Amino acid sequence: MPVATTCTVSLDGAVGHVVTVQADVSSGMVRTDLVGRVDQSLNEARDRVRMAITNSDLPWPATKRITVLLAPADLRKRGTHHDLGIALAVLGAEGAVDPVLLKHCLYVGELMLDGSLRSVRGVLPMVLAARDRGITTVMVPEPQVAEARMVPGTTVYGVRSLAQAVAVSTGDPLPEAPPVVESSAASLLQWRGSTRHEDLDLDDVLGMGDARLAMEVAAAGGHHLMLSGPKGAGKTTLAERLPSILPDLSDEESLELTAIHSLAGTLDPGKGMLVRPPYSAPHHDASKVSIVGGGSGQVRPGELSRTHSGVLFLDEFPLFRHDVVEAMREPLENGEITVARAEELVTLPARGIVVLAANPCPCGDHTPHAKDDRCRCRPQALREHRAKQVIR
Predict the structure, then answer these.
(1) What average pLDDT does this structure show over 44-69?
(2) Which residue, among 214, 229, 170, has the nearest Cα to 361 in the 3D structure?
(3) Average of per-residue pLDDT across 10-26
(4) What is the DSSP string of 8-59?
(5) Which of 238, 98, 251, 262 is CA-nearest to residue 185?
(6) Is 244 helix (H, G, I), strand (E, B) or coil?
(7) What is the pLDDT of residues 82-92, one digit of tens each?
(8) Phi-psi region of 281 (alpha: psi -120 to 50; beta: other; left: phi over 0)
(9) Which of these ranges, 146-155, 159-168, 277-286, 353-362, has the smallest mean pLDDT?
(10) How far apart are CA 351 and CA 202, in angstroms?
(11) 80 CB contacts (<8 Å, ≥6 apart)?
């Protein structure tokens, strides 16, 4: 029976599940079926794959019935990165590629109608999942070769098009193809001071002995920190410099954090592995999903996970929404975030240092034990403000 098999990966958060793609090309009613609990974006792969194969001058079985199974069938699959594996499975079943050559390789890539490839999110956790299950040969879009090679013990092939993927599989010379458009994760906009955090150091801070000691204790023990003081006291100055006294990430931490940023679509492959603790300071109007993680469709890591092994600075903490503060309580206790939905359960790491900063009163001028206290806040407003500085 004309059946060919390839492999891809389906992601649930940072956890990857190897998916077996089987294509059957046989006589029957002319149609293309994609089965195995696929979402809308993946269901549209039937049209993308058909046009990509046709426009690459490869044989498309236009007079036969094509059935593509993504197994296990009870696992929900989503995303366009399955396109390359589906196309090669169809070509293997049609006889354009020897099916034996396709069985032991992971294929990742989104296909355009002309047969060219596009970069996708989450290549690093996909390759990690495949390696853990004994698949050590990987084929990805050319710009993501460096990202895939971050996983030790793997052989990575970078291709620009479906025709090149077929040539690599069969050992034929590579045909010409235009370069693949790189991911937009790299910063497209730079402004004065946008990289200033790279040059900050706690050694720049003079005096403030008690506050410096608190920062050092927090860095040494991985403790969370609360900074309270009037405007201009140096809360932000201290928090921004906390990563400078943290050690470089271990190999395991570096791989975990890089995989999280790959999943979030914020990894710049040109910069390689993340080796320094990250730092983030979201605005106080940030939503619960942006801080904790979630979103519609595939779950994306929030700021708590993107600063795993680093520092998350929440300035003007009393102004953060109540639901955001309550959602942070369990991740701070457990060091991980679990997003539960009707059909999936996603767990993401979140073991970083959270630094909170707040003014002692709404106007920011309250100076305890000072003769020239210029606070203009009413006692009731002052009590409410202090109550918001507590995570219950």
Answers:
(1) 92
(2) 229
(3) 87
(4) EEEEETTEEEEEEEEEEEESSSSEEEEESSB-HHHHTHHHHHHHHHHHTT--
(5) 262
(6) helix
(7) 999 999 999 99
(8) beta
(9) 353-362
(10) 22
(11) 41, 42, 45, 48, 110, 111, 118, 120
